[in-house]
Each structure stands twice: as structure tokens, then as C-alpha cells.
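pasting for ref
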Amino acid sequence: MVTKLLLIDDREAIREGLTLLLHTQPDLKVIADVATPIEGYDQVGQGEVQLVIVSQDLAGVGGAAVTRELVRRQPRVKVVVLASRCDEDAVREALAAGARGYLLRQQTAAQVFDAIRSVAQGHVYLAPGISHLLVQDHLRLHRGEGPEAGPCDRLSRRERDVFDLLVRGYSNEKISRMLGISTKTVETHRSHVLRKLEVHSMVDLVRFAARHQLPLD
């Protein structure tokens, strides 16, 4: 059985290299590779894609935000996030957004193939060295402890997506295009973000992010 794949990465060389690599496997077929989330949403909306490999490092928007929108638009699609490094918060956010796998770019070709096949079969795949994060969370919950609180816990998932882009300096119009939502919806989320985080301006919001050592680029 052939698994139909979509690649989302804004670096052409990486898309081409990954496509060539995957084409060596008869059971894996890349039906499209695109540079932007919007193009990815359009491809998924056509209903042919079964599994999406999305870069964690897309310019301006994280893999979790793209994953969330992909799954919202096509709940049956499976998503694997491909990252340059292991970041605990990024892993948790990606899994919470609906990702079924988390790969690291330095993994071998054989591991990449195994990960894709595992996720396609309905399993969850985490790169070696990441699994301990879930074990720690499981043990914490088993002890009756809640998950470690974060500075943005009061935000909904969509509000967190908007927050991440706002503190990077993107306009409402740009965020609208990147997340595939209307400008009016972005404005609503922006208002909620400011209120929930108890800040009164964009300058305050950036200071909030810096104070809590949240990424600004």
C-alpha cells in the first residue's frame, strides 16, 4: 500500500532532497512539496494527502500552528513535524496540536522511513531521546500533579498561534494569510491575547515574551 505524502518547507533545497530520498521507497509517494502553509492547506483540502511532513522551522510560524490548522481542515490526515533540534516545549506543543510524529533532521534515512511508516500505520513516533519527555509528564500526572505551568497557559491554542506571530512582528494581515483565517478573526484573537496576559500594547507583549524567555525570532 502506497502512502501519499505532502512536504511543507520554505527551503527548496530541503524539499528537493527529501523528495529524492522518499522516492527511493516504492511504498512512499510525494504527491506535492510546497513552500508555505497556505499552499499546504490547499493540498490537504483536496483530500488525497494521507501524511504531511511539516518543518518546525518555517519562517514566522511554528510547526505546531501549521499542524493544528492541517488537522482542523482534514482530521484524517497524519502530521509528522521535522525539526533541526529537540526542544521540549516545541515537542509538547506539536503533539498537543495533533502531530503524530516528531523527527530530527540529523536522523538517518532508515529512521525517517521507519517513522513515516509507523505514523501511517496509526502509531506515534518520537525521535530517539524525546520519549523521556512523555514519561516525565506521565509520572507527574500519576502523582496527581498537573502539567508544569507556562506563561501562556491562559491562551487558547489559536490565541497562542497568534501570540507567537505577533511577538515576531507580523501584521494582522500577514498572520491572516499564514494561519488561513480572516483579518477580523486575527484582531479578535489579538484582543483576547492582550487581555488574558494583562498587557496593554504590542510593546508590552514583546516585553512579556522577552521576560519569559519566549522566542522572538
